[in-house]
Amino acid sequence: MSKSLNQFAIEELAPMLENKEISPVEVTNAVFNQIDEMDDKINSYISVTKDQAIMGAKVAEQEILSGNYRGKLHGVPMAIKDNIYFKGSKTTMGSKIHQNFIPEYDATVVEKLRDQGVIFTGKLNLHEYAWGATTNNPHYGACRNPWDLDRIPGGSSGGSGAAVAAHLTIASLGTDTGGSIRIPSSFCGIIGLKPTHGLVSKHGSFPLAWSLDHIGPMTKTVKDNAYVLEAIAGFDSKDPSSINSDRKTYSSMLGNGIKGLRIGVNEEYFFKDVDENVEKAVRQALLDLEKAGATLVEVDIPSMVYSEFAELVTIMSEPSAIHHDNLISRPEDFGEDVRLPLKVGELFSAVDYLQAQQVRWQLNIEFQKVFQDVDVVITPTLPFLPPKIGQLTVNINNKKDVYYPTDIIRFTGPFNLTGLPAASIPCGYANGLPIGMQIVGPAFREDIILNTAYFYEQTHMPLKEELPIR
Amino acid sequence: MEKEIISRLTNKGIKVNQEEAMQIVEQWQAIQNLRKSMHNAKLEANNIGLVNQPGGYKE
Q1: CB-closest option in A210, A340, A362 to B44
Q2: Is residue A205 annotated as part of the catalytic site, yes or no?
């Protein structure tokens, strides 16, 4: 069966667009056909911007026909999480409180993608204010996992993960404060990268917890991820946490193989209380990488044991500071699953918060030492498979019930605390559901992460399963 | 503990009903269990940087 254009990756579409074999209008129409056909089941979009998209696609078509091809993203449809600002377009943050908010400016990442000629198909569903990992949104409806419509896609960028997996857009952007790019990427079987803190500007995205927030690409393939990352990375004076690092063309740094790659593995923290299917898939991936020439090295990170407390204190206190006034004046306008943690976040002391920041610093120092001995660290992205919508606990290996809304960030959160870059890539399936493996690198070495991910992807293509829904 | 939590929140002007109070207490207790691990943390007095340090760390 031949693929329709919305099922292609950027790396496949770009040469066809550049050579004028297909038009951006055809690709954009294919995406909207899929949205019409499928999104009432998945609910990945909060708003669809069809008229503007078709208009933009026609402009891109004319530019390409007249020889002004701007690059790999020119004429490619993308959709953006609805907490990233679009000038003049409703940006809801998945909330009732901001349901009519219309930003007066574009986020820097949106500006950068516009400059590359991206066609925006709409704004994607998320957990309210990005404060949660289910995307079971009380105001805009639950987003569903394309692999099993009864299950969550993860979150908070659940719409971004589900839309890419179900070919409802070609690529997307998410935000990540405790794992919100990597969690839905793992549950939906796509590639998601949380870049180094400061590499991608956050100007024009609504904060969840400002010291932990990141923006990053969510894509069908590793090369697509590199294309989007190189378009959105770079210093921005409007973001106080932005850093002026070297510009890299990540897509040209793939395909270098992994011979001699040193992979750090931390058994004590990252392989404890993990679903056996997840553990099996990640261990197999590590063995495969070892067989291909990598070396596995056990690494010691003593402060990991404090990371859960540090993560919870920080990720619960900062949102409570942001939403404090609304929590007093209009608490009923928050969904219950956001209102409760906002209230819990009010209980921490200044000493709690500052000790959490001390732990972060300590973790950073320990990871600096780790990355003297290894090139990347690999872990499971998540301790379990996607839970059912509405479920609050997950049973791990018939031994232990865990309250998953907090346990879900156990493996991803440490890299928000440290700001280190981390990606989730698919490494297997169990019960028809995708499993993700997390690859972490030193600060600003997204190139090593993507090269490792690319090698794995290229050598494990047969692993790719077809979505059960069309 | 429930009374204390309700009082701390209401003193800030935040309303809490009975059902919420129970859930908040449950979550707060789970956090207190994690806090226990902190008793063994040897936090360095010098590690006082607020770590939204661009790049995740500095040399």
Answers
A1: A362
A2: no
Residue A169's nearest CA partner among A95, A241, A234, A73 is A73
C-alpha span between A386 and A187 (Å, rounded): 6
* Contact list, B28 vs chain A (CB under 8 Å): 344, 347
From the CA of B17, how many Å to the nearest CA of chain A? Answer: 11
d(CA A124, CA A207): 16
Among A180, A201, A317, A320, the active-site one is A180
Q: Which residues contact A246 (CB under 8 A, 6 or more apart)?
A: A444
pLDDT per residue as tens, chain A (470 positions): 588 999 999 999 999 999 999 999 999 999 999 999 999 999 999 999 999 999 999 999 999 999 999 999 999 999 999 999 999 999 999 999 999 999 999 999 999 999 999 999 999 999 999 999 999 999 999 999 999 999 999 999 999 999 999 999 999 999 999 999 999 999 999 999 999 999 999 999 999 999 999 999 999 999 999 999 999 999 999 998 898 888 899 999 999 999 999 999 999 999 999 999 999 999 999 999 999 999 999 999 999 999 999 999 999 999 999 999 999 999 999 999 999 999 999 999 999 998 998 899 889 889 999 999 999 999 999 999 999 999 989 999 999 898 888 899 999 999 999 999 999 999 999 999 999 999 999 999 999 999 999 999 999 975 566 766 54
CA distance A128 to chain B (A): 19
Contact assignment for B55 to A419 by CB distance below 8 Å? yes
